[in-house]
Design goal:
single chain; alpha/beta; two-stranded antiparallel sheet; 5 helices; 10 strands
Length: 190
């Protein structure tokens, strides 16, 4: 069965973006960038990876899931952001923009979609955001890969949205810290 991995950057205080979707305080350059890219190659938008000379072959994922707000970050310049992956965007209110023919937009229950995807053959599935979608898929996530950034936001979009108290145990698989202050923490379900 395929695994769902929530691979995302987050602040020390648990936010994946600011109140208006800001993520510019996250360090994208530094000595952490190359090792994280090596481990999770193919997790940058296709055009950006190609422009930077970053290889996308060997990506551990073949499918990417995102909520509308995560998808819309690249609009209108990148209507097909991860052209090298199957892309599914969850939205109840928006229609597909011009140039996004390769992107699947759905208002289906994310839990039904992920359970169907997990039953199909293929590589791992990447949940790249956002917090509300992660909250809906919380019990279906098999692995967490958190790029913990040395910043605090104070408010914004939480890693798992606004979920209630529901403790779950996770097992630390690896932790790698870099001189830049960024750490990559990887967890599996306990």
């Amino acid at each position: 069965m395929r695994e769902l991995t929530y691979f995302v950057a987050m602040s020390l205080d648990g936010y994946i973006a600011g109140p208006n979707g800001e993520f510019d305080a996250f360090a994208v350059e530094g000595e952490h960038a190359a090792p994280i890219w090596q481990r999770y190659r193919g997790t940058a938008p296709t055009q950006l990876a190609e422009a930077a000379g970053l290889p996308i072959e060997g990506c551990p994922f073949d499918t990417v899931l995102m909520g509308w707000n995560t998808y819309a970050v690249g609009l209108p310049a990148l209507p097909n952001p991860y052209a090298h992956l199957k892309q599914i965007v969850f939205t109840r209110e928006h229609s597909s923009p011009e140039g996004s023919e390769a992107v699947q937009f759905t208002n289906a229950d994310p839990r039904d979609v992920i359970r169907d995807l997990k039953a199909q053959p293929g590589e791992r599935i990447w949940l790249c955001g956002g917090g509300q979608l992660a909250a809906r898929l919380r019990t279906d996530i098999d692995r967490l890969a958190l790029k913990i950034q040395p910043v605090m936001f104070g408010s914004g979009i939480r890693l798992f949205g606004d979920t209630g108290y529901a403790p779950e145990s996770w097992k630390l698989e690896s932790m790698q810290s870099f001189a830049s202050g960024v750490s990559l923490a990887e967890y599996s379900r306990a």
